[in-house]
Predict the structure of NXF1/2/3/5-like leucine-rich repeat domain-containing protein.
Amino acid sequence: MEAIIKIIEENVPELTCLNLNYNRIQRLDELSKLVTKVPHLKTLNLSHNKLKSEHELDELKWVELEELWLVRNPFCALFKDQSSFISAVRQRFPRLLKLNGNGLPPPIAKDEEDRIGICISSVNGVPQGSILGPKLFILYIQHFQSLK
């Protein structure tokens, strides 16, 4: 890996896309040394490797990737659904625009997060023991059944 890092650093430091699929990669600690040498990296393909834990991605979370491919890594099957997988990856790469070739919604800006937090904290809901609770539940069920 040291030789590869040196070649890339000396010959293609402006590299923006790196395809490392089908390389039997199990850990990303060595790869983190490589990506420090390519500050413009935006697309990384790690598909069909042997990554067993989502925590391996922590080695690269400081890289401002826009596109990431993780298809057919063992850890991908550990998530209960696609949204939890996307959420786990997005926590590490908040600026990610594409995951496994699929577009993601644009990242939420910090000021938008603050506004959302204010809105959420100002919502109190239905008071405990209120007569509205059961009525709202019945309305919800009726609406849900009408959708069928």
In short: Residues 135 and 141 are 10 Å apart (CA to CA). The mean pLDDT is 86. Helices lie at 2-11, 29-35, 82-92, 110-122, 132-146. The chain has two domains: 2-103, 110-146.
